[in-house]
Amino acid sequence: MTTTESTNESRLSEVGATHEASDPTRHIAEPGPLGLAAFAATTFLLSLFNAGIVPDSLEKVVLPLALFYGGLAQLLAGMWEFRKNNTFGATAFVSYGAFWLAFAGFVQFTEPALQAGGASKAQVGLATGLFLLMFAIFTAYMTLASLRTTAALIAVFVLLTLTFLALAIAEIAGASGLATVGGILGLLTALAAWYASAAGVTNATWGRVVLPVGPRS
């Protein structure tokens, strides 16, 4: 090996070491597609009931999905986003993972407890509406933050904000028609999230843009 070749190899090693030091998480897969897929699947299933497409008598089927996919998988994705130094992704996935876990607990334990305690249907609706309203507020300011991401994610957060608002108002006001609208918006949200997830995993696997997500701001 000549002195020049040795010097070039040394420089390449230094560049590689510098790149590794500047991004110590580059060997960690992107958790975003997983989190989006978990969110989309659970949102889609629940929205089928909210839209009146599937009978309410089967709604309990949402609970295991809310616990283990929408809840646990998103929570894990959020923890990996913290490791990737992605504040937006970490905040979104941990929060919505916790939302699904809390939703499962609310349906399984809180609603029956309120009814057993003598709460009227309107009062239970108010409690549910307030639960959803908190996440509508959270999603609204996450939508503002999403404006610095991609068009695909912006679509997800805009639709999700409208979904939460429609469902919250429907529960508080007892407006079943608005709940149906919220269900339809939820289905659109799920489709948008599935697309963003599919784009993330497909583009990463192919090593090029197969499914565009729009330019980053």
From TrEMBL:
Q: Where is the composition biased (Polar residues)?
A: 1-10
* A family per Pfam: Gpr1_Fun34_YaaH
User: PANTHER family from the entry?
Assistant: ACCUMULATION OF DYADS PROTEIN 2-RELATED (PTHR31123)
Lineage, please? Bacteria, Bacillati, Actinomycetota, Actinomycetes, Pseudonocardiales
UniProt protein name: Acetate uptake transporter
Keywords on this record?
Membrane, Transmembrane, Transmembrane helix
Annotated region (Disordered) at: 1-26
- Indicate the transmembrane segments per the record: 34-54, 61-82, 88-110, 122-144, 150-170, 177-196
Protein family: Belongs to the acetate uptake transporter (AceTr) (TC 2.A.96) family.
Q: Which InterPro entries does UniProt cross-reference here? A: AceTr (IPR051633), Gpr1/Fun34/SatP-like (IPR000791)
Membrane disposition = Multi-pass membrane protein
Q: List localization entries.
A: Membrane
